[in-house]
Design a protein that fits this description.
- The chain is α/β, with parallel strands linked by helices.
- It has five helices and five strands; from the N terminus they run E-E-H-E-H-E-H-H-E-H.
- The longest helix is centred in the middle third of the chain and has 19 residues.
- This is STAS/SEC14 domain-containing protein.
């Protein structure tokens, strides 16, 4: 697993919310970016196979083709099996990222993710992202008390 600078990415588990929260504080090259996803998976496994992630992309570009291919072909297929169920990911994206987030390539990515039991959703509002994750937890019967 790649190591990433702590001033470039923050990762925390919030037991009160039942969430893994990852925030990129700056852009990272693909090997380090892959390392952040591996770190999130390890944190999720360490915290009861947490399947609800809030990922803040607002300070880094929406992923390019190299990361998307790695995510699609190598990382995503492992997630549901590793965590014992589907992954629900709320991505926070800023208005400046809307063109990339709403592209045909991103729509295809979202459809492919559903095939491997990963359910990503894009949000501009953190409150809306949290509400979507909470609704998913309730549907899955794993909402924190």
């Amino acid at each position: 697993m790649s190591v990433f600078p702590s001033n470039a990415f923050s990762l925390e588990y919030r037991p009160d919310l039942g969430l893994i929260i990852g925030r990129w504080l700056q852009d990272l090259p693909p090997p380090e970016l892959q390392g952040t996803y591996e770190a999130m998976l390890a944190a999720a496994q360490a915290h009861g196979n947490c399947r609800f992630w809030l990922l803040d992309l607002r300070r880094r570009p929406v992923a390019g083709p190299d990361l998307n291919a790695w995510f699609r072909d190598q990382f995503s297929p492992r997630i549901a099996a590793a965590l014992g169920g589907p992954l629900f990911t709320a991505y926070l994206a800023g208005p400046h990222q809307r063109p990339a987030a709403e592209s045909d390539a991103m729509e295809l990515y979202f459809r492919r993710e559903a095939v491997v039991d990963a359910f990503p959703q894009l949000f501009e509002s953190e409150a809306e992202a949290m509400a979507w994750l909470r609704a998913g937890q309730e549907r899955e019967g794993v909402a924190p008390a």
